[in-house]
Amino acid sequence: MCSCESHNTNGEENGPQRPENALSTLTEDLTLDFGDDTSLVYADCFGDYYDTGLYMWQFYFMEFEKKEQLCIEVMVSSSECVVPTGTFTATSNIFQAGGMLRGIVDEDNYDAYSWYTRLATPNIAAAKAPIVEGAMTITANNDGTHTATFNLFDDARNKITGRCTNMMIVEDFR
Q1: Given a cut of 80, is residue 7 above it in pLDDT?
Q2: What pLDDT, in 10s, does the model give residues 81-99?
Q3: What is the pTM of this model?
């Protein structure tokens, strides 16, 4: 894993190099913007989906003009279907409340947990990256919106940052 302290994705001679086995197809750092009229945010509650005693939430941030998507999966201890707030830190531990599950490719060859995707067409990705380090913070605002702040890293050491203030459409799939 890479250290979150300093990242260099420009291939400078003394900087970290792209790992050979990286799943990410990104070639540079990204700054995401999901906060305008061309964006949509879903907060989906799946309940105790993994039978861990914790509730799993998936956050889908979508920007239609740039065709960007960010899916972040978190684990919380609350059984309420209310948008969870706080800082969610990348982990592989599915039993960790407050954890943001690292992106992987599962045994069926599907992208699982937390991923960034830029679409070329509705069914084909132009770029994608598993989120493996960093954190997402969600705060509730007094106007019915939430603010999500991203400070993330993919497995090729690209930094993915951004901030989104928007209404979150809550869906209850428990």
Answers
A1: no
A2: 999 999 999 999 999 999 9
A3: 0.86
- CA-angle at 29, arms to 129 and 34, nearest 5°: 75
- As given in the structure block, the two tokens for residue 54 are 């914790």
CA distance 103 to 101: 6
User: Which of these, 54, 165, 130, 66, lies nearest to 99 by C-alpha position?
Assistant: 54
Q: What is the 3-state secondary structure (H, E, C) of the chain?
A: CCCCCCCCCCCCCCCCCCCCCCCCCCCCCEEEECCCCCEEEEEEECCCCCCCCCEEEEEEEEECCCCEEEEEEEEECCCCCCCCCEEEEEECCCCCCCEEECCEECCCCCEECCEEEEEEECCEEEEEEEEEEEEEEEEECCCCCEEEEEEEEECCCCEEEEEEEECCEEEECC
Residues 6+ apart with CB under 8 A from 34: 41, 61, 62, 63, 68, 70, 148, 162, 164, 166
**Cβ atoms 64, 38 nearer than 8 A:** yes
- Contact indicator for 114, 130 with CB cutoff of 8 Å: yes
How is residue 28 written in tokens? 């540079």
Nearest Cα neighbor of 132 from 73, 95, 92 is: 92
